[in-house]
Specification:
The chain is mainly alpha-helical and 166 residues long. It is built from five helices and four strands.
């Protein structure tokens, strides 16, 4: 119990520090993630091929935050996702998950806010992680296509010099 209390105090102090360093807040409750996901999904429609798929998957990953909030509140994640997407597509940028009421609503009305600095850090870290994974995937794909062909006979090393080689 003491460790949990220490962790809670530490988290609260970090939030205060973030707000002091960058005094700006945004709607919480998964609303920023739902909005970013909505914009990414719109952008993905203008792309094609692997780029479109990568952007769609990143948007889905960002959406996991409001979905986790909904699941933890005992809400149906699919219904929540459908409503979040519909409302954000209408321009309702502050719509998030009201875990206490068990419904989707305007986070500013039920007074859930988060420091902007935290959201920027989270999205930046997620973007860096996704970019790193894509780069690693590109390296693996490139190494598979550039592998030298295997010679007939399995590619075992040749015999010692002078042993039948001409």
């Amino acid at each position: 119990i003491v460790e949990e209390a220490e962790r809670s105090v530490h988290d609260a102090l970090c939030v205060v520090k973030d707000v002091m360093v960058k005094p700006a807040i945004v709607a919480g409750a998964g609303a920023p993630e739902a909005e970013v996901s909505s914009k990414l999904l719109d952008w993905a429609q203008t792309l094609s091929g692997r780029e479109q798929l990568a952007v769609q998957k990143f948007a889905e990953a960002v959406e996991s935050i409001p979905l986790s909030i909904a699941e933890n509140a005992g809400m149906d994640p699919i219904d929540t996702l459908v409503e979040l997407r519909a409302r954000h597509s209408k321009g309702e940028k502050t719509i998030g998950v009201n875990a206490q009421a068990g419904k989707v609503g305007d986070a500013t009305e039920f007074e859930v806010f988060e420091p902007l600095a935290v959201k920027e850090q989270v999205l930046s870290a997620a973007t860096e992680a996704a970019t790193m994974i894509l780069r690693i995937d590109d390296v693996i794909a490139a190494s598979k296509t550039k592998a030298p062909p295997t010679p007939p006979g399995g590619g075992a090393p040749g015999g010692m010099g002078g042993m039948g080689e001409y």
